[in-house]
Structures are given as structure tokens and as C-alpha cells.
Amino acid sequence: MKQIIFATGNEGKMKEVREIMKDAGDYEIISMKEAGIKTDVEENGTSYSENALIKARAVREEAVRNGMTGFLVMSDDSGFEVDKLNKEPGIYSARYMGEDTSYDIKNAEILRRMEGVPWEDRTARFVCAIAMVGEDGREEVAEATFEGFCAYEIKGEYGFGYDPIFFVPEYGCNDAELLPEVKNSISHRAKALRMARDILADKFA
Ligand code: ITT
Q1: Residue 189 CB less than 6 A away from ligand 1
Q2: Is-catalytic flag, 77?
Q3: Where residue 18 falls among pLDDT bands split at 50, 70, 90?
Q4: What is the pTM (predicted TM-score) of this model?
Q5: 63 CA distance to ligand 1 centroid (A)?
Q6: How far is the CA of 195 from the centre of ligand 1 (A)?
Q7: Residue extents of the structural domains in the chain
Q8: Per-residue confidence at 34, pLDDT binned at 50, 70, 90?
Q9: pLDDT tens per residue across span 43-90
């Protein structure tokens, strides 16, 4: 069975990817840790797709150096965009206010910056780019969005990152209030991974 090394150091993402890809048939998903890969690259691209490719290429190179065969690398670059804040934090979502700042603080700061902004101007979204890099260097990217609003309040215990301040109109609650199986059926990551699976079947079979 072919292995997909999923190039992320983010536990929240890894958990969702495993759940979304659990019936991905011919592939076994393994984390970088499980593959013994330690690469930590600088994400200096100017788009989600570029950053996703930067991560996947670096992991492929290390896997090849380590003598691995029969694998494909996948990575996820994602972010939270608030239109009223010029799409911040955007591609800098992980680094916003510092990588080690807690999301309680980051989320509170975004809500503070959005104080007094009416509902119709609170449009926001998550974006996810999934890059695939084959053992032979072949490259593909799939990108998808999850549209909603910047909430008025921090709410919910599920998910990770900015989920507690993202309001999901279809469900009338914040993303972090949705059960994981619900988020994982409608999210930016779910959509991009579904597209990625079609690309895998088409171009990497
Ligand atoms: P890797 O690069 O190792 O994958 P990272 O957390 O640094 O991990 P990104 O650079 O892609 O990953 O940053 C994505 C950030 O966007 C993430 O840290 C969250 O702050 C936010 N984010 C992305 N998807 C999210 C989701 O589904 N729910 C909440 N926040 C999300």
C-alpha cells in the first residue's frame, strides 16, 4: 500500500486529516513523526498554494534522502481571513501575534479589532490549500474555502485555532461548537482533501 506522508506539525490539522481521509482506500496516512522526518521549513511564499508546496517539497526531499520509497507527500497550508481586516490574519494565521501566543489571546484580539462592525461587514472564511508532491517530484495543488462570519463572541470547545470565532451560517453557531464529524464534512480542509483525492486517483494512480 502506498504511504502518504502528511507534512504538518499541527496536531489539530493532523487529527482532522486522519478523520477525513479514513476511507481513502489505497493509501495509508502517516505523520512526519511516524516517517522520521524533522524538516522545519520557512514558509516564505506569498500564497497558501505556494506555502503548501514549499512544505511538501522539503518533506519529499528529506524522505528521498532517508531512502524511503513508495510514498507521496501531502501538505496543508491554511488560514483565516476577515474581510474587514484586509483579509488578516490570512497566510500569517499561525504567526499572528507570535507563534507561541495562545488562541484565547489571538481570538480576543481579533474580536476587539472588530468591535462595532455590523454583521453584514463581518464576512470571513477559512482557506485551505492541499499540495501533493510525488516521489518523482510531480506536483499538484487543490484549494477550497469555507465561508462564514467573524462571530461576536468566542464560543465552543471543539476544533482548534480560530474555530471559536468563526460563525457557520448553515448551522447557526460557531465552528468550535460543531461536532468534529460535522466540521469535517463541510470545512475548507474537507473540501480541499476531497478535491485532492480526485486528483490522486486521476494523476498519481
Ligand atoms: P504546519 O505548517 O506544520 O502544517 P501550521 O499551524 O503552522 O502547521 P499553517 O501555516 O498552514 O499551519 O497555518 C494555519 C493556521 O490557520 C493554523 O495554525 C490556524 O491558526 C489557522 N487555521 C487553519 N485551519 C483552521 C481550522 O480548521 N480551524 C481553525 N483555525 C485554522
Answers
A1: yes
A2: yes
A3: very high
A4: 0.96
A5: 23
A6: 19
A7: 2-204
A8: very high
A9: 999 999 999 999 999 999 999 999 999 999 999 999 999 999 999 999
Cβ atoms of residues 55 and 113 within 8 Å: no
Report residue 23's pLDDT band, with 50, 70 and 90 as the boundaries. confident
DSSP secondary structure string for all residues of the chain: -EEEEEE---HHHHHHHHHHTTT-TTEEEEETTTTT---------SSHHHHHHHHHHHHHHHHHHTT--SEEEEEEEEEEEEGGGTTEEGGGTTTTT-TTS-HHHHHHHHHHHTTT--GGG-EEEEEEEEEEEETT--EEEEEEEEEEEE-SS---SSS-TTGGGEEETTTTEEGGGS-HHHHHHHSHHHHHHHHHHHHHHHH--
Query: Is 39 a pocket residue for ligand 1 (Cβ < 6 Å)?
Result: no
Catalytic residue among 77, 100, 104, 163: 77
CATH class, range 2-204: alpha beta
Is the pLDDT at 24 greater than 90, yes or no?
A: no
